[in-house]
Design a protein that fits this description.
The structure holds two protein chains of two kinds. By secondary structure, chain A is mainly β. Helices cover 0% and strands 50% of the residues of chain A. Chain A has strands at 4-5, 10-14, 19-21, 24-25, 32-39, 46-52, 60-61, 64-69, 74-79, 88-96, 105-106, 110-115. In chain A, strands 2, 5, 6, 10, 11 and 12 form a six-stranded mixed β-sheet that branches. The termini of chain A are far apart. In chain B, the strands form two sheets. In chain B, strands 2, 4, 5, 6, 9, 10 and 11 form a seven-stranded mixed β-sheet that branches. In chain B, strands 1-3-8-7 form a four-stranded antiparallel β-sheet, with no helix packed on it. Chain B is an all-beta fold. The mean pLDDT of chain B is 94. The chains are: A mainly beta, B mainly beta. Chain A binds chain B through residues 33, 35, 37, 42-47, 50, 91, 95, 97, 100-104, 106-109, and chain B through 2, 31, 33, 37, 40-43, 45, 48, 50, 55-56, 88, 90, 92, 94, 97-105, 107.
């Protein structure tokens, strides 16, 4: 079964608008971390934001916020005031701490295109 | 500074060649990783080194051979690769079990 599901293969948003990229996850572990990465066409994976399973507040980093709904097992990324430079592939990922492992489990990604 | 560097940026090699990919980080991170990424797919973990010791090998074929000479350096030695090994190879590092920081990658083409 998929542990990380990103159901939107592609999304379009107009510049200056907000956009939400969906991510749902599946784990029986109580302690885990959720990550979002951005990958422009150049190839580098850029870390954007992190949410721990015990964090009560939604994580925010500048224009990025993570809408964490633990009961629904969702960790959606919200990008406010989109910019042309936000056009990229976005990956949601999870680490399950109970297994004391360094493994990150990635979703299949969402390609975001920002148009003027 | 959250920089991970990788060399070379691009590499073209024949199936009988031997080449190496290099990765370096100066953040004092304890763990370093190699990933393989095919076009339009998420990265696939290959190897993890923790405190310079190999801790995870995701059943990678022996034609890929990792090496961690010290806590800042990670190499991936390539020998007798196949065309299907053509991909973007990403290196990453992390401290504890926190976020991983990735390098810019090496685009490998096997002819």
């Amino acid at each position: 079964a998929q542990k990380i599901t990103q159901t939107q293969p592609g999304m379009f948003v107009q510049e200056k608008e907000a956009v939400t990229l969906d991510c749902t996850y599946d784990t029986s572990d109580q302690s885990y971390g959720l990550f979002w990465y951005k990958q422009p066409s150049s190839g580098e994976m850029i870390f954007l934001i992190y949410q721990g399973s015990y964090d009560e507040q939604n994580a925010t980093e500048g224009r990025y916020s993570l809408n964490f709904q633990k009961a629904r097992k969702s960790a959606n990324l919200v990008i406010s005031a989109s910019q042309l430079g936000d056009s990229a592939m976005y990956f949601c990922a999870m680490r399950e701490f109970a297994y004391n492992t360094d493994k990150l489990i990635f979703g299949t990604g969402t390609r975001l295109q920002v148009f003027p | 500074d959250t920089e991970v560097t990788q060399t070379p940026k691009h590499l073209v090699m024949g199936m009988t060649n031997k080449k190496s990919l290099k990765c370096e980080q100066h953040m004092g991170h304890r763990a370093m990783y190699w990933y393989k990424q095919k076009a339009k797919k998420p990265p696939e973990l290959m190897f993890v080194y923790s405190y310079e010791k190999l801790s995870i090998n995701e059943s990678v074929p022996s034609r890929f051979s990792p090496e961690c000479p010290n806590s800042s350096l990670l190499n991936l030695h390539l020998h007798a690769l196949q065309p299907e090994d053509s991909a973007l190879y990403l290196c990453a590092s992390s401290q504890d079990y926190s976020e991983q920081y990735f390098g810019p990658g090496t685009r490998l083409t096997v002819t």
